[in-house]
């Protein structure tokens, strides 16, 4: 091991992005990825940056949406994850959805082709005493490493349960019932405006569907486990338990859609499917994460109009995710306070989502480069999406109630003099993004300026 070697544990979104940023800066990088030698519940391959849940990076609107702003900031910083996402983009209205297989293959091949990047198939099960390390093991951190983190920090690992949505073969969808339309016809092209398939429900069909959801056999938890779900990824049956109308005002809301087969009939609820690959042979059930048992899933989901004869390429599932109480454990440079040569990045730090995880990998990689090359790197402005996230996980959040968080404008400092409430929202969000872009470009220009001789 040399002082110019950066070790990254985990080859997911965060680890891959950290490796890219560090390798581009000239460091030797070793990625320790335990897959496929040691598998997980959700992963199917040993490729870097494998997508295991949705294929969506969510909104790409960099003027009115915080995650779209995060996309913009990452692109400005030369993100490999965003390069691949843009290359393998699929029509998804105003969202950025990607063709998951070539997306992962591109990231995998690009990193493995770099002469200063080595990928090893080994499980790191302890925290090292020396060297330069980034742990980006994600929410599926191995039990052995999780125990080591717990022993080091003396803190209980927090846990929540993340559910995976089913994927349907498009040839088994009844297009005499289903129609193609993005909500509010959003999108710049015809493909974008027709990016989603919509399954309409009458009130009676919706009520029967809710009854079946509530009565279906669910996955049982092991002794000692608790169902502390992250609110941004709730299983649909848990939402139904919170009230019969919850789904109709959530993933099954009928607004912004007109049934092309029956334009005069307003659906009571709508199930949306989003294209999951470039060929259009697979569709993801949007917002339909579930912990129902497999047999129950096929029975319940075939109650949805248009899916009566559906065949599933993958059924939904549930797995335990872990994350750290980062506000008490990490400093502003994402270093473990008790071992400053160890950084953490990605979902294990308590950010939620592909893009947020990759963004924290990007920052961790750049921060490691600055430490190892002895260059100055100022704090990331909290007015940026990147800065808001890293501030949240390193002390901005309340430790007692800390839970995984998507990027959102609630994490940003207010802009003075703007109207509060829904009516002033567009102007307020535009002010947030304008300020963030200027501050991010300013930070990047200083971070990438040559060091003084």
How much of the polypeptide forms β-strand, as a percent range?
A: 15-25%
Mean of pLDDT: 89
| Spatial sequence of strands, sheet with the most strands | 6-2-1-7-17-16
Biggest β-sheet: count, sense, barrel?
Answer: 6 strands, mixed
Sequence stretches where pLDDT stays below 50 over 5 or more residues: none
Number of strands: 17
Number of helices: 13
- What class do helices, strands and sheet pairing give? alpha+beta
Helix content: 25-40%
| Level-2 CATH architecture of the largest domain | 3-Layer(bba) Sandwich
Shape: globular
Count of structural domains: 2
CATH class of the largest domain: Alpha Beta
**What's the gyration radius in Å?**
22 Å
CATH topology of the largest domain: FAD/NAD(P)-binding domain
CATH superfamily of the largest domain: FAD/NAD(P)-binding domain
Sum up the structure in keywords.
453 residues, alpha+beta, FAD/NAD(P)-binding domain, Elongation Factor Tu (Ef-tu), domain 3, six-stranded mixed sheet, six-stranded antiparallel sheet, 17 strands, 32% helix, globular, FAD/NAD-bd_sf, flavoprotein, tRNA processing
């Amino acid at each position: 091991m040399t002082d110019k070697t950066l070790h990254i544990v985990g080859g997911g979104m965060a680890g891959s992005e950290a490796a890219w940023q560090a390798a581009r800066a000239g460091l030797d990088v070793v990625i320790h990825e335990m897959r496929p030698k040691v598998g997980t519940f959700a992963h199917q391959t040993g490729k870097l940056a494998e997508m295991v849940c949705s294929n969506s990076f969510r909104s790409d609107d960099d003027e009115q949406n915080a995650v779209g702003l995060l996309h913009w900031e990452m692109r400005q910083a030369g993100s490999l994850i965003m390069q691949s996402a843009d290359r393998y983009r699929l029509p998804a209205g105003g969202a950025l959805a990607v063709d998951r297989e070539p997306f992962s293959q591109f990231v995998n091949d690009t990193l493995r082709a770099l002469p200063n990047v080595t990928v090893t198939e080994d499980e790191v099960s302890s925290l090292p005493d020396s060297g330069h390390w980034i742990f980006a093991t994600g929410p599926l951190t191995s039990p052995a490493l999780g125990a080591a983190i717990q022993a080091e920090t003396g803190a209980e690992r927090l846990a929540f349960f993340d559910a995976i949505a089913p994927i349907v073969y498009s040839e088994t969808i009844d297009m005499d019932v289903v129609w193609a339309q993005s909500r509010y016809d959003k999108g710049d092209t015809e493909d974008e405006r027709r990016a989603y398939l919509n399954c309409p429900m009458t009130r009676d069909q919706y009520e029967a569907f809710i009854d079946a959801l509530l009565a279906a056999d669910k996955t049982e938890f092991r002794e000692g486990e608790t169902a502390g779900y992250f609110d941004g990824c709730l299983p649909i049956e848990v939402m139904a338990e919170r009230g019969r109308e919850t789904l109709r005002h959530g993933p099954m809301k009928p607004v912004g859609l007109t049934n092309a087969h029956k334009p005069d009939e307003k659906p009571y609820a709508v199930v949306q499917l989003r294209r999951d690959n470039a060929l259009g042979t697979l569709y993801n059930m949007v917002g339909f994460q579930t912990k129902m048992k497999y047999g129950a899933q096929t029975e319940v989901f075939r109650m949805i109009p248009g899916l009566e004869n559906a065949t599933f390429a993958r059924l939904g599932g549930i797995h335990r995710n872990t994350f750290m109480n980062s506000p008490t454990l990490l400093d502003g440079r994402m270093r473990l306070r008790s071992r400053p040569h160890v950084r953490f990045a990605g979902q294990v730090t308590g950010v939620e989502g592909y893009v947020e995880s990759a963004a924290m990998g990007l920052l961790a990689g750049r921060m490691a480069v600055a430490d190892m090359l002895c260059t100055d790197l100022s704090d990331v402005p909290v007015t940026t999406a990147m800065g808001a996230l890293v501030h949240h996980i390193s002390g901005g959040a309340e430790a007692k109630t800390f839970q995984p968080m998507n990027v959102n404008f609630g994490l940003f400092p207010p802009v003075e003099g703007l109207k509060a409430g829904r009516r002033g929202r567009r102007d307020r969000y535009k002010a947030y993004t304008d300020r963030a872009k200027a501050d991010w470009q300013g930070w990047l220009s200083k971070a990438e300026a040559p060091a003084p001789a």
